[in-house]
Amino acid sequence: MNFKLVPIVLLLLSLHLNAQRQLNLKKIDSKITIDGILDEAVWLRSEKTAPFLNQWPKDTGEADSQTEVRMAYDDAFLYVAISCHEKNNQHVIRTLKRDQDDEHFGSDGIALVLDPFNQKTNGFFFGVNAGGAQFEGLISVEGNESYINENWDNKWFSEISLGDNVWYVEMAIPFRTLRYDSSITVWGLNFVRNDMKNNYFSSWNRVPLNLNTINLGYTGELLWDSNPPKAKKGNINLLPYLAGGVSKDHELQSAEDYSFDVGLDAKLAVSSSLNLDLTLNPDFSTVDVDQQITNLTRFALFFPERRGFFLENSDLFTSFGKEDINPFFSRRIGLANGQPIPIQYGARISGNLSNKLRVGVMDVQTAKTDNVNAQNYFVSSFSQRFGKRSTMDALFVNRQRTTQTSDSTQAAYNRVMALEYNFLDVTGKWSANLGMHKSINPGELDEESYYTATVRFNNKNILTRLSGDRVGENYITDVGFVPRLDNFDAENEVFVKLGYYQLSHLFVYNFLPDNETSKYNLHGPRVSTRVFLNMDGSLNSSFAGLFYFFDFKNQNALELSYVNEKNDLPFDSFIVGNVPFPKGYYSYDRVGFWYRLDPRKLFSGSLGAEYGSFYSGNRLYIEAETNIRFQPWGNFMLRYNFNDVQLPSNLDSDQLHLFGFTSEISFSNTMFWTTFLQYNTQQDNININSRFQWRFLPMSDFFVVYTENYYPENLAIKNRGILVKLTYWL
């Protein structure tokens, strides 16, 4: 052997593994039956993908368990045929329930990543696990990572079948489900394989270890043999619903309240790349309940949007600001003081006007009630791409009061304008954000602006982020989320707006053992700091944490932590109990740990604890979770949080308990029964929510939802209700 050729061979092999891959797509005129059995002749003639490559916990070489994918299309569908080879048929299937993010990536599964505009800024995800559970979502880019919004729901078809050391998948994705430009014949494409038996991920096109497998910056290319089919005229999908129920408020000792509602959602393809969503009298009663959280801060908590009307292309409206400073937060629409307000109608058009320009326009009208004014919410945005992956984004939000009740505390209108530039380099290592926002309110107000800047770097070993913000005291966002702006003055019982500066930094270093005998996938330190300053530069509060994280090859995980927090309370403030904490300076420390057991096992769970000082006292925090999984049909989880806050005698010490039980039973891939039991001493409430769902046809569901609320101390019932709902996709 000529050893001088070895470096050249290795170099050529490296270039082959790292080059952007391509798959040719041809039109067919034969029928494909979606049954998970790849017996159609077209699959023998179709081009198959090159060998899949390792992505996690290493990103070199070819995957041990290989995957083969073939694709085809006709005038109505994009077809996918997949063969997932393996060494045995012992699968990890954590659920049969659809649209479960953690459960999909924690199961043996395969997924398709599509970027029809090849912009590397937004796309689609269609996945199936080895039990046949579907998982679809919209992919968007934030910073230098790609994320899935799993709450998006649409119509597509898939089936699986099991063979000898292999399992098969067939998919049919309707073109009406996708948003694309029929003149673009090169789409971004990747495939992601989860092999949880061996705890690794692989992908068709190479994705670096430091990025997640769905990263749109590292897609290959799907090459069409001709232009994709154009959207047909009159491409309209209708989703009407009927809902009826009965409820009773036992606290008010009122009679039973019977209800009957009819509503309609509609999707109209204005073009293959632009979609119009309409809703009349929407009903969101079947949305999953939020997981309750104990709150030991002065500020409100953030809960994500789950209502379907607001989800498609939602990143056009929600990607502005930071994770805790948002000029638009759709959950503000249809809620007042935590209570639902009827939405009369809504219309939203969103999508691509061109390869580089995305737009979104939304208008929603809420109804008047006895104590709340009717409101109109208008939101518009655009995103113009510059270079390969950078964008200039703009947003306008207008809340307009359309009636006048006796309650005149809310201003007639509130408007917010935002302009942001988002830079992302081709490799995904560097990203930056620069933004300016302005709110407009009645009267002559100063300090209505918000400024933000962030720089991020991410490679295989290092992740670091530095950001700064300036929030004016009158940067008012009635349809947004700015939790630190309103401060409650307990002595005078008023809310006071205080502007602030926010500075934060994150540093992560990962040691990646290359020794095959190592028990770690990675381990390393994490340093997180955040400082809030008053407008005069004095300290408001700060957080500094030092963590060390271990990720084991057997999917166990361990984190050790030390945290210091400082608070200079500007007013007497309620934190715990009914006695306000005196204003002034507080500094306190805590140490803790968190440990997770392998979630693939029959019995799994996690345990964490923190102990240290807390304002002028001490706090012990314990969180425990245990899970019993009967693969693949049953998942039963107990969750318990305990806070023991011990304070001086002039304040209220307290012990706060949060108990949750979740039961998820999958009778099949189309029939599910989910029950939540939550006991929260901070909210003085026991809640039971039980939901049965039967998806009798794609996107057509029958629901039965039962809800009860009790007082914990004597189990006296507060209220109960049952709802039956039918939706049908036309």
From TrEMBL:
The keyword Signal applies. Residues 34-198 form the Carbohydrate-binding domain. InterPro entries: Carb-bd_dom_fam9 (IPR010502), DUF5916 (IPR045670). Residues 1-19 form the signal peptide. Residues 237-337 form the DUF5916 domain. Transmembrane segments: none annotated. This is DUF5916 domain-containing protein. Keywords: Signal. Gene3D superfamilies: 2.60.40.1190.
